[in-house]
Amino acid sequence: MTKSWEKFINKNIYKNDLKSIIEDILKNNLSSYFVVKLKWYEDYYRIRKWKIRVVFLKKEDENEIVAVDTRWWIYKWL
User: Fold this and answer.
1) The whole model's pTM is what?
2) Is 73 in contact with 53 (CB distance < 8 Å)?
3) Is 4 helix (H, G, I), strand (E, B) or coil?
4) Which residue, 14, 16, 31, 36, is the most exposed by fewest CB within 10 angstroms?
5) Which pLDDT tens digits describe the chain residue by residue (78 residues)?
């Protein structure tokens, strides 16, 4: 089953850029991005690209994508 953030990426005009961001997050290659820790959420981080936010859960050895959406809707998924 497809995750809701995968559907959002496929519909978005920036899908190639978003796919590369997600690949980097999953590979834990975050040095080229401005990563912000979310307040009130432990181990949740955000990368912003244009009006789109990618929220992920940072673990010791891997990262998990939580949500990808516009800035107005992203925090409803948390």
Assistant:
1) 0.75
2) no
3) helix
4) 31
5) 346 666 666 666 666 777 888 888 888 888 888 888 988 888 889 988 888 888 898 887 888 888 877 777 666 655
38: helix, strand or coil? coil
Amino acid at 71: R
Q: Provide the total of helices (H) and of strands (E) in the chain, helices listed first.
A: 2, 4
- What's CA 46's distance to the chain center, in Å? 6
Other beta carbons within 10 Å of 43 = 13
Distance CA(61)–CA(8), nearest Å, equals 26
Cα separation, 16 vs 7, in Å, equals 13
Beta-bridge partner residues of 68: 54
The CA dihedral of 16, 29, 78, 73, to the nearest 10 degrees, is -30
